[in-house]
Amino acid sequence: MKLNKMIGLAFVVVLACSAAMSTSASAFKLEWEVCEAETGGKYENHLCGVQGGGGGWEWKKLTGTINVKSSGEAFELVAAGKEIKCTTVEDEGTLTGGSPGTDKMTKIEFTGCTTTVAACKVHTMGSAAGTIVAKEIPSKLSERETVEGAKVLADVFEQNPTTKEFATLLFEPGGSCAEYPSTKVKGIVSAECDNNTTTGQVVSDFPDPELEGNTLQAFGVAAGLFGTFTSERSGTGAGWGIRCV
Known about the structure:
single chain, mainly beta, eight-stranded antiparallel beta barrel, three-stranded antiparallel β-sheet, 1 helix, 49% strand, elongated
């Protein structure tokens, strides 16, 4: 009897653990999908936003590599009471299906960047005043949580694996930038990934408050990056819909 009870208890524990594991599984596929031409597809055009019209287009799991480009407006980096604001951002990169962690932003360029000290100009090496450039930035889809505990689909951006940073910020002229010493921006930062079904574009939002799990740093302390940009397919299949799922 005692042995049977122990076996029964062990069985209950296994079932409980299995249930916990199943409920903790991600609610997202963590995949990119692309709108592609397909005979009998249920969507009427290359954006895969409207069903009907005889079909001919369908969402398909991305299995190869496609080019993408992105653009956005106001962005802000905040750390240790310091603020750097930029008016626009543009980037270009690639998405690779079936290989998590191999997405990459080959170049991210912020322009119109200023500090809270009017005379203190910010830039990265080789860039004009007010321009910040980051290169070869890996990203991957992942599940993250908001500060309220809600689970969201996120695009997680990591520092360049070779330089161990996103970028080094430089400030000039020296005398006017006493409170802005040069600094490396490094770590991990996440954007909530959403889809615009009307335009076939992906919207990446770096929210305030930020998503849990960020480790972004600047000026030697925790930093926050806030803003939104929109991405679309470029190159072959330019303008065809993409989405994160």
